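User: Working on a comparison across species. This one is UPF0122 protein C8D99_11023 from Aminivibrio pyruvatiphilus. Can you predict its structure so I can line it up against the others?
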Amino acid sequence: MEKEELILSRRLFVNQLYDLYCPLLTEKQREAWELHEFSDLSLSETAEKLGASRQAVHDLISRSREKLEELEALLGFHRREEGLEEEIRTLRRALEEKPGSTGTNPRPEEDHDVRRTS
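Assistant: Here's the predicted structure for UPF0122 protein C8D99_11023 from Aminivibrio pyruvatiphilus:
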């Protein structure tokens, strides 16, 4: 994997962690993260918007990233989600490979709510 691909992959991973765990960050951390990562503002521009120094914003974003990684290490939601997505892909492939299968559910009413109660 090239260096650029590795950097992009890492950034995507951390932003996926943000999607999962952002409610557990402080309001200031979320605001700084969103301005820097999603609005694509530089650290200086983010600092100006927040009324803080560039170093303070850098530290805030770094602590946010560390917190996101710590939460994933403790809770593992991203890892579980990836595992479930892989299981779904495996099941879909198996269904598609099954002779005579069209790949659709013969009982479409079951597609809407998988949480059936007795």
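For your comparison, note: The mean pLDDT is 87.

User: Helpful, thanks.
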